[in-house]
Amino acid sequence: MKDIMLKTPEFGFIVATRAALALGAGLLLSSRLNSGKRRALGSALVAVGALSTIPALMLVRRSRSARERLRKRIE
Alpha-carbon distance 75 to 18, whole Å? Predict the structure, then answer.
């Protein structure tokens, strides 16, 4: 297991984007709302979640590399 150090806003960004992706997928799979509204909202949330994956991955990678650099300085 690898340790990742994130600041609170960065962690919040990752959680919020994952939640948007999950909520969008849930809306697309459900049948509770009007079909047109449900598809539009679900598609928008999935798109936001998917497009925000790249910046989220970059935050995690940066965090890992910063931690590695700090570890090397200490040794």
Answer: 36
